[in-house]
Structures are given as C-alpha cells and as structure tokens.
C-alpha cells in the first residue's frame, strides 16, 4: 500500500463527558479522527424520512425523544483542546440551516484552534420539520448549500471578499486575514449529492452506513461524474462508514481501496451508562488492536 489507511469514529447522541472520554482515548490509541453529527431540534411530530435504505430505522436513532443533541461547534472546540493529533470533523453539518458568514466564522475558528485538524463535512439535510422550525425553506436547501460552499471558499482564501447571489448578498468584508485550508467533505448517497461531490468536494463521506457493494456502486457514480466534469485529476478522498467494526468487513473495504474507514461510534464505544468507563476503554482498545489501528493497520486488508 502506498500509505497507511486510517480509522476514524463518527459520533452522535453522547453525553459531553462520554464524548470527551472517547476523544481522549481515541487520540491516545491512534484513531485518525472524530466526526460529529448534527441536528438542532427534535420535532415531536414529523413525516420526513431519512434518505437511506434503512428509512425509519435510522430515524429512531436520530430524532427520538431520548436522543441527546448538543451544539457540535462547542463540542468540537472542547475536543480540539483535549487532544493533540486527532482530526475533528462534522458528519455532517446541515449547511442550509446556517448563515454562510456565521458558518465561515465557525470553520475558520475550528481550523485555527485545532491547528489545522478540522474537516468540514457538509450536507443538505432531510428533516423538513426541522427546517420549518428554524425558518429556512426546505425546498431551497440544495441551492443554499451550493451558494454557501461558494461563500465558504471565498472566506477560506483570506482577505476581503464580496458576494452577490440568489440567496445571499453582501459588500466587501473579511472573515480571516490569512488563508485556511479546510478540506470540504460532501456527504450524501443520492444523485444530486453525488454530482455536488464531483463538482466541488475534496472528499466524500456516505450517509448512514453502507455495505461494500453499496460503497462500490456509489464510488463508481462519483468517478463517472468527476470524469464528466473534468475534476478527475483533482486530489480526492473517500471516507466510508461500514456497518460494523468487524475486521473481516473492514478488511473488505480496504482491499477495494477504501483507505479512510469511519466507524459508527456505538459500535466501538457504546453510548450507554450501563458500562463503566473502564469497560468502554477496554472495548475501544480491543477494536484498535483487532484493526491494527496502531502500528500496523495494513494487516487488516492483507
């Protein structure tokens, strides 16, 4: 292999203390990164469905009444301060529900405070009732995402910039006096999302969790779209979230060239109070050992 594959962890519905403990021990053991899921409110009644094959099974884990939601940017800063090498990312940030200039400020701050360890995972969102509560038109989410990405790239270039678009317009202003390099990771498994990935992204991360067969199909679509748009020569990364941390399953992804694995947090650090901290640490250490996270992850895909 030309480089060592990486293994990260995606998190959601954790208490702040549990999140911090996971972060500190993931950093110690050599996991690559910690990704934060995002929602702002949990509607009591909703008719929207998560755009994955799991459908309502996913929704019960995302917006159930007992799900704990915390501001991802606050948690991200706390984790950045408590770790030394762990990358931190959003998987995903629901971009259309954010003001683009405030989001630009968030991302520049995350980049600088983490010493360049931040990755911005972006998505259009799926929960219409959440958009309604925030006051953002749900049917404009794709266009707002595209325009916000354009604004973010201007902000990341450093210095003053202006913008005049369909949804946002402002005179010359500055977010950062210096340029920042924030990898843009676009999420999603549907046609519009994959076309966006091919057009503007530095990397892709799948929605929910996927089988190897699904990941191969989605990668083929992205590569066709990159060829069609003339972006195939641009450096690009794939972050894939398999269904489990089983070495055989992970090894299958590695053998097919998916060398950035992102594990579902509860599969490696159960988000329950029924286990002690010592038991959770032991479980994470077992996963790190089974997958060869350090020092020889290559052995999994051999």
Let me know the CATH homologous superfamily.
Luciferase-like domain
- Unreliable residue stretches: 296-302
Q: Look up the CATH topology.
A: TIM Barrel
Rg for CA atoms: 19 Å
Can you offer a commentary on this structure?
The protein has 302 residues and is an alpha/beta fold. The chain has a single domain, classed as TIM Barrel (Alpha-Beta Barrel), CATH 3.20.20.30. The protein has eleven helices and eleven strands. The protein has helices at 16-29, 56-62, 72-82, 100-113, 128-134, 141-156, 191-200, 212-229, 247-255, 265-268, 277-291, and strands spanning 6-11, 33-36, 87-90, 93-94, 118-123, 160-164, 169-174, 184-187, 203-205, 237-239, 260-264. Strands 1, 2, 3, 4, 5, 8, 9, 10 and 11 form a nine-stranded parallel β-sheet that branches. A two-stranded antiparallel ribbon has the order 6-7. Helix 4 (100-113) crosses helix 6 and helix 7 crosses helix 8. The chain starts with 5 loop residues before the first strand and ends in an 11-residue tail after the last helix. Mean pLDDT is 94; it is low at 296-302.
What layout of secondary structure does this protein have?
Blueprint: E1 6-11, H1 16-29, E2 33-36, H2 56-62, H3 72-82, E3 87-90, E4 93-94, H4 100-113, E5 118-123, H5 128-134, H6 141-156, E6 160-164, E7 169-174, E8 184-187, H7 191-200, E9 203-205, H8 212-229, E10 237-239, H9 247-255, E11 260-264, H10 265-268, H11 277-291
Parallel strand pairs: 1-2, 1-11, 2-3, 3-5, 4-5, 5-8, 8-9, 9-10
Antiparallel strand pairs: 6-7
Helix pairs in contact: 1-3, 1-11, 4-6, 7-8
């Amino acid at each position: 292999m030309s480089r060592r594959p990486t293994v990260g962890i995606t998190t959601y519905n954790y208490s702040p203390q549990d999140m911090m403990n996971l972060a500190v021990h993931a950093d110690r053991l050599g996991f690559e990164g910690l990704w934060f899921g995002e929602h702002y409110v949990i509607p009591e009644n909703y008719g929207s469905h998560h755009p994955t094959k799991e459908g309502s099974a996913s929704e019960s884990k995302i917006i159930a009444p007992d799900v704990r939601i915390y501001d991802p940017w606050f948690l991200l800063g706390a984790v950045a301060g408590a770790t030394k090498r762990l990358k931190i990312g959003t998987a995903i940030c629901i971009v259309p529900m954010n003001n683009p200039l405030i989001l630009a400020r968030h991302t520049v701050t995350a980049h600088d405070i983490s010493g360049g360890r931040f990755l911005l995972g972006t998505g259009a969102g799926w929960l219409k009732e959440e958009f309604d509560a925030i006051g953002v038109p749900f049917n404009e989410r794709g266009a707002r995402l595209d325009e916000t990405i354009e604004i973010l790239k201007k902000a990341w270039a450093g210095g003053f910039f202006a913008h005049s678009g369909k949804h946002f317009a402002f005179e010359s202003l500055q977010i950062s006096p210096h340029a920042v390099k924030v990898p843009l990771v676009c999420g999603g498994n549907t046609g519009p999302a994959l076309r966006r990935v091919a057009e503007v992204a530095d990397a892709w991360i799948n929605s929910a969790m996927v089988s190897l067969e699904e990941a191969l199909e989605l990668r083929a679509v992205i590569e066709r779209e990159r060829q069609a748009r003339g972006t195939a020569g641009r450096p690009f990364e794939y972050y894939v979230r398999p269904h489990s941390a089983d070495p055989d399953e992970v090894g299958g992804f590695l053998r097919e060239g998916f060398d950035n694995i992102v594990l579902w947090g509860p599969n490696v650090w159960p988000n329950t109070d029924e286990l002690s901290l010592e038991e959770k640490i032991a479980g994470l250490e077992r996963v790190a050992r089974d997958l060869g996270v350090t020092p020889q992850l290559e052995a999994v895909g051999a």
